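seq:
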Amino acid sequence: MKTKFAASVLSALLYAQGLLGFAALATVLIKERAQTEITASADVPSGPSVIVVR
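struct:
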């Protein structure tokens, strides 16, 4: 009985670790994508711009 309990606990821990790993990977990918969008939007001016030369 103890071996079945230990096996189920180990299985649950491995499952939880897999979910956490997937969440970490998704977080990194989303963060990189957001950083790329911020950089791309910073390069493109928004609206008309006027340069005054004296």
